[in-house]
Amino acid sequence: MNEMSIESYLAQGGVLTSPGNVPPRYRAELMRLMATFVDSELAGAAGFADIINEGPGITERIAASRIVLEKLDHAERVLKIMGEFGANTDRYANHHPWTARLERDAEVGATRSEHDMRLSVFNYPLQGWADAVAMNLLMGKAVSIQLVEFSLVSYQPLAEAFRAIAPGETRHAELAEEGLSKLAAEDGAKESLQASVNYWWPRVADSFGGDKSARAETLAAFGLRRSSNTALRARWEAEADSALGRVGLARP
Amino acid sequence: MARFHELTVKEVRKTIRDAVVVTLEPTNGAAEDFDFTQGQYLTFRRDFDGEELRRSYSICAGKDDGILQVGIKRVDGGAFSTWANEDLKPGDTLEAMPPMGGFYTPLDPGAARQYLGFAGGSGITPVLSILKTTLEREPLSTFTLVYANKAVNSIMFREELEDLKNTYMGRFNVVHILESDAQEIDLFTGLVTEEKCAELFKGWIDIEHVDTAFICGPEPMMLGIAAALRSAGMDDSQIKFELFASAQPGRLKRKAESKGASATGNQASAAITLDGSTQTVTMGKDVTILDAALDNAMDAPFACKAGVCSTCRCRVLEGEVDMVANHALEDYEVEKGYVLSCQSFPVTDRVVVDFDQ
Hints:
The structure holds two protein chains of two kinds. Chain A is mostly helical.
């Protein structure tokens, strides 16, 4: 009864609970998944922090500050789990300039930068308050969908962290929708907002990865993935589309 | 990074033939570091023939017992558990990291919850800590334990559980399932499988009103129980798992001896194993092992590329590499031949590395 390999245990939906019982390749994929999340939150928070002062009123600046604060908090929670696997958490927080961005028209597709694992979308610079709000709505929806998936990962401490993080990230998308709805109601604002949506839509869509992912099978066997990139992206398109509809904008 | 502290062994008590309960006392002012949460474990380290072994054992004491205690069951061929069962004695010193693990839920003195625990063999240790603490600190809650063992004589903490039933009359219930000993009720004989759980949920356990379930035992048992709980309508956030110590990696082989230093040139041949397949590549000695793998279309793992996160860890089996920065691996890992591939350049003309170990 006790003879079962970790691999077959995982393939059958088993859950792992501490660094002591994860196999090496699982460890590597888990670390990569966590690094992607942490780097994206750190880069996202760093980019958005610069925008706080551009908020048109105190309420907006409070909302933006809260988003920055919570993204850093979420990064810290997941980084703590990386630390249990040996990552140097103090150094990690500072090993990379998280505010660094590429040019607005750089074409990086879904590829990562050389030295961090942030999702490619976080390599593009924000252009002012309205542009940041539009990006936050689209990306907030994407993160919420990813977190539903992540809350089911087979490493229990991480699944629990993501379950605790999910409501906050969902709220960020709601704040963005409130903000965008307010902006869209202003005279003559729709055109530039729609331009921002057109700019961010394909870049956020890219963050779900390609339709054919070589790693998908490995990740599925490890219990680190359930849905395909394609399925997740389709879910996002539907949700982002209806959110845009509610504020009087449209997908490109 | 967590640090090891010294603990003095106060008592070593046999519970069954091949398991001991060890009472420990932190020394050198480390008491605060060992203020555990019910259900957590301690990771010990000890040198065996020059090789450091690390093993984790769950705390079996409740929060209100006022002591720190772990249960160690002897595993066949397990160096640490055999040593603990045969040679460990009061007055000895053990080294352990502060308590770790998330196998618990927050307690609320005002809550009236129903808990269900499943333990297989020595998987009882963290569950015992949880149930003792819960019964003491949540006076309105109830706890049902389903406890699987081979036979009556292999039940750890049998008497202690009986005492708890008397102390918390009506709030604590134990169902013993024995693999080989016949019992009055047929249902209580055999393995705890998905089907067995489904049967238990019909009459013996009020599954609809269970708030949280804890499972600690061997892999097949955890899968079966989890499947039964999900079919009964519980979701994953209500089910807490703790994987048994048996799943810990076995004893590691010693690092192969280095096969002579560099003879010529700036080229090296590297045999790189990833996901079960090996590629031999020719690489410059100014290229890291990680980049050599990536350049040859191998999907090697990495994240920070700064020697910080340890995602790219691999093991050198043959030859020698120079790891220029290391902010993540500990000395004992390095001694075993682990390196951060993003920071490691070949020194010898031939190196053999493995990402699967």
